[in-house]
Amino acid sequence: MVRGRISRLSVRDVRFPTSLGGHGADAMHTDPDYSAAYVVIETDAEDGIKGCGITFTLGKGTEVDWSRKGRGAPGDSGRPKRGVGLVGQAGGKACLEVTCGHEILQKGQIGKKEREKQMLAQGYPAYTTSCAWLGYSDDTLKQLCAQALKDGWTRFKVKVGADLQDDMRRCQIIRDMIGPEKTLMMDANQRWDVPEAVEWMSKLAKFKPLWIEEPTSPDDILGHATISKALVPLGIGIATGEQCHNRVIFKQLLQAKALQFLQIDSCRLGSVNENLSVLLMAKKFEIPVCPHAGGVGLCELVQHLIIFDYISVSASLENRVCEYVDHLHEHFKYPVMIQRASYMPPKDPGYSTEMKEESVKKHQYPDGEVWKKLLPAQEN
Fold it and tell me: Which residues are catalytic?
């Protein structure tokens, strides 16, 4: 049923100066400003229905010529995305409630109600990346890690890849703080070539990481397979996928046995349908989906996908966990809810992409209040 015609389209460059606090810094992106191309499609429908979409970047990526977005360089600090998530609020349901017919989904109907109740009561397990950005001092790392432990977090991810001795020191700090029983992950953000990744992680294996994330170029499928073959005997899995821009790349990674943990990104892939096709492939290959999140709104979006995956596709929480980063949620109209280190199911209509208009105006680049103050200071 047609609800109305498009009456207005707006696209705004929204940037948050996260680089000032070292938030988001990793081995490839040392001074990122978490940003987004924020799209709103309004209609003339009587109920005011509209669609909101986000394309996450690290600042410069928002300036990319969108007719050439598919040729963005993976290592560019601007991090241009290759897919745009645009979802409306029609139907008055949270996005995760929408299903489609398929053999895997039909099997997923068995026990579905019980899994829905479980999610509503307990939520989907998460891990935190907020403690250990490369831009943080050791004191900040310790402080944030101690607070996360106090808040009930049991799974932690640390950024690595810039300097081996620095990695050894920081991983030792975190492992000492969280103890041997809690889970530690590592993320190199594409920094290494294949032999370097194997050598580097062989030395970090003493800290018992569950996985190494993006050990090399995201386009090097056979390289990931080689790294996987070398590290799995050390008890280290390969996690990747946040830079994969379509289901074909994921199919090749799965066929090549190049990963043990599949990481969809709610903005990198072309909205909901492309993500769902990857969830179904992961189920076929019995590889757990552990989504990438954080940035601007990625947690808000991906919560729908991963809870849907558990309820209707995978029907399992074994080796499954979703990333959480505690930045910028206050700028969203329907922010993600975390309780007991778990994502609680969203209940508001849509894909949770709608931002607060006040935040958009304040952080619009380069004319928003925040940037009018910062840009002259940076130029000086």
Answer: 159, 292
